[in-house]
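Can't paste images in this forum, so I'm doing it all in text. The chain is below; anyone willing to post the predicted structure tokens underneath?
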Amino acid sequence: MTADAITSTYRLQLRGDRFGFADAEALVPYLAGLGISHLYLSPILTAADGSTHGYDVTDPTTVSAALGGREAFESLSAAARSHGLGVVVDIVPNHLGVATARENPSWWDVLRHGRASAYAHVFDIDWTAGRIALPVLGDDADVAELTVDRSGDETTLAYYDHRFPVDPSTDDGSDDARAVHDRQAYELVGWRSGRIGYRRFFSVSDLAGIRQEDPAVFDWSHEQVRSWFADGLVDGVRVDHPDGLTDPAEYLHRLRTLIGPESWLVVEKILTAAEPLDATLPVDGTTGYDALADIGDVLLDRRGEDALTRLAEDTTGDAADAAWVHAAERALKTETARTQLAAEVRRLAAAVVRDTGSDVEPESIGEAAVDVIARMPVYRSDYAPLTGLLPRLIGEVEADRPGLSDALSALAAAVAVGGEAAARLQQVAGAVMAKSVEDCMFYRAARLVSLQEVGGDPSRFGLSTPEFHARLAERARWWPRAMTTLSTHDTKRGEDVRARIGVLSQVPELWRRCLADWTEAAPAPDGSTGLFLWQNIIGTWPADGNLTDTYRERLHAYAEKAMREAGSRTSWNDQDAEFEDAVHTWIDTLLDGPVARSITEFVAGIAPHGWSDSLAQKLIHLAGPGIPDVYQGTEVWEDSLVDPDNRRDVDYAALRTLAETTTSAPAVDGTGAAKFWVTRHAATLRRERPASFAGGNYTPISAAGSASDHVVGFGRGEHGAAPDVVVLATRASLALESTSWGDTAIALPEGEWTDRLTGASYSGTAPAAAVFGTLPVALLVR
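Text version of the structure:
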């Protein structure tokens, strides 16, 4: 198996406490039967004890023993290859986990020995600031609560359950913890102090950035990755968060050299709505959030935009149009840069002074940098297609704030020099974007929350079919090996939840009336919070009305995270218990009161149309341009919300049973069998006919007749040849309940066509009523 043979992937979330390499190996026969070509594993290097995701790697030189260790990984790879499958692994180059210092050998050594440590060059530490500030105390005064612990094999400083090393050369045997602390290379400070001695992953102090720009650090941190390719264990890698690195392009070129020219390499590069992927990067593409947005948006009914905008404005008291979204985003980015990431901004300003020798006050430089970053519409602007963006933004700030002219001159000079400050500007910009938009704005905007996904744009309400086809044709031409996705471990809500919420665009007036009735019976404590949560409740509400205790717990957990991420009335750092209790009480009222019956009736009415859109996006995803990834468990309906909810255990026993018993096109109902049927047939067809999906051949297929706008379709085929696969899907299906397909027909390319999903055959012009008579989608093969 080689990367050339990659046709689709299946993402597995490994966990040392419940799903390791042996569990994944047991799934290989099932996954081979599903039709995918490659297993796609979450990070497998040694991570923090009890890690539920693997992104907090503590030792990049070893495979996780909790998952089974190197030998078990080799066994998994061999089992996969024996069934004709390859392996792709997620790697994390930006940071290491430091939550429990002793678990990370390199971090422990740096804390013990400071700049004398053999690992001092590994971490992105601000050595110019003196001692390494570690924000772990309740407040600065808590340094008085430290004690000296001599119970183990080495002397440590203790702060409750936390332990920190003591440099042996500073240990005089005294138990005066404050005196011992003051002699260390690190300094324990209050977490609210705004002091931090190292670059973090966004504002997460438990994840310390490392210096991949140093070739020695790259070699050390990629020992295992190098051996995986040398030993033929893997065929490709997914790179987590490259925007956090000092020089992503340089890193990716080095990684490409390491893994070889033919191995699959995709990057978690979050592209904003109008941003292209840099074609000079030696990658096969992104991890697919851009495709997710396009596929979901074409299925929305754009005629519902105005009504949903008015509803949001009436309910929240704020505007809900594109101008409001962009203004709110800029304000949030300014606030984030001045608060959560103030330490990073100060370090950036200090670097500007060092790089340029400027005598401008660092505070003024920091203010100028914040304004530039707040206006940046992308995560970072130093990719080739964005040439000219940063100079324009600097010019805009100077025009609006001439008092910052000297500071902007210093910032521009530092960018021109291209040293430390230039890189830090980009790193801070990406962190500000993520914390402000992904982790805040997307929990505040409430017009249609299915639009609020990583890399998405809440101000863009749907795509026309012509624009959709143009976008997919470009992807087919320029990025045919990019990963595409509908759900990931990081999506704000799962694909089927988004699909059902999207149906609200088809029934905006009914949605308004129902909300008014429900709000009268059970008013939410806050209009914005209520409208946001209402949509997620509708998206996940069991269609049969069976409200289990597990569902209740999940809904409450999601509401807590959503409220705190939004930061409007409560937050992670400053919780408003009274407001949070009011929201939880409100949710219980909905679940236990008379409103629940009405919600169930509403959901029962829209659920079939959500299922229709789910099948449509699944087939478009699996048969469209790019390499589709099936996130674990999404071969059937799933109602996940944001992590950790989307990392729940998957009932693979039930899926195996479904695979064995589903032998003909099933009904589109609550079992999810129809989605499994579509997934298996589409993935299998890709494996059978890789050439039909590999190249740039993408042909829009149109319909004619009274309901032609309810069809979206395209053809795929070998490069330069006519299509030999046609994908057809229903969109905005609710209106068809009253109008039906009527005279609508689809002009098929020349030849005889058979639907892999139903067995029906067509040629020439096929009536839509016949094509979609059994399923709302069709997968035709010549």
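The longest strand covers residues 745-755. The two ends are 27 Å apart (CA to CA).
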